[in-house]
Write a structure and sequence with these properties.
By secondary structure, the protein is an alpha+beta fold. It is built from two helices and four strands. Strands 1-2-3-4 form a four-stranded mixed β-sheet.
Length: 86
């Protein structure tokens, strides 16, 4: 399954659960996670990877910076949002 296929499944699943999901195509910050999901007073950033694929050093740095600001960021390698250990 490609990263894009996993992203679509995650978007569809979260949308069905009432989340407002946006796929980040291009922004001013390289390394920004692929998706942002919002529901009520919760926001989650999601970096999607194929199973076994690693974060780039820039992605690791960006996610660390985001988490240091109190943002919730997860790395998912399946439609079930299985969080990889980083």
């Amino acid at each position: 399954m490609t990263e894009q296929q996993i992203q679509k499944k995650i978007i569809d699943k979260l949308t069905q659960q009432g989340w407002y999901v946006v796929k980040i195509i291009k922004c001013n910050k390289n390394g920004t996670p692929d998706l942002i999901a919002c529901k009520e007073n919760e926001t989650v950033w999601i970096e999607v990877k194929k199973p076994g694929e690693k974060l780039s050093p820039l992605q690791e740095y960006t996610i660390k910076q985001m988490r240091s600001k109190g943002l919730k960021v997860i790395v998912a390698d399946s439609e079930y949002l299985r969080i990889q250990n980083y």
